[in-house]
Design a protein that fits this description.
Layout (H helix, E strand, L loop, with lengths): L2 E5 L2 E4 L4 E8 L7 E7 L6 E7 L5 E3 L7 E6 L4 E6 L8 E8 L17 E2 L3 E6 L1
Parallel strand pairs: 2-11
Antiparallel strand pairs: 1-3, 3-8, 4-5, 4-9, 5-6, 7-8, 9-10, 9-11
């Protein structure tokens, strides 16, 4: 059974940092693009960052570029999202996704229902 399990969310003050993890299991993800998305209360889900598992190529939304870093650990089958200089507007539920039919640049444009796998999310709250 394929699973993406997010962890690492929590409450942090503005300007602080958090590192989210997405533990992937149940299959080999070497041909996949892994991504982070977020959804704030009352808002649409938005793309945050993506990484191609086999070569580590990355892509970021403009809103997080320079503050967030996506990476992966092949040995642990885990994708990370290091979030620095957090702002209250970063408050959201953060979701991990995996898809093999996309590129890092186009993952954000794909419909959610077209993604191969989704995690259940982890909540990040940034206080001002």
């Amino acid at each position: 059974q394929v699973q993406l399990v997010e962890s690492g969310g929590g409450l942090v003050q503005a300007g602080g940092s958090l590192r989210l993890s997405c533990a992937a299991s149940g299959r080999t993800f070497s041909n996949y693009v892994m991504g982070w998305f977020r959804q704030a209360p009352g808002k649409e889900r938005e793309f945050v960052a993506a990484i191609r598992w086999n070569d580590g190529n990355t892509y970021y939304a403009n809103s997080v570029k320079g503050r967030f870093t996506i990476s992966r650990d092949n040995a642990k089958n885990t994708v990370y999202l290091q979030m620095n200089s957090l702002k209250p507007e970063d408050t959201a539920e953060y979701y991990c996704a995996a898809d093999r039919k996309t590129t890092v640049q186009s993952m954000g444009a794909r419909r959610g229902s077209d993604m191969d796998y989704w995690g259940k999310g982890t909540l990040v709250t940034v206080s001002s």
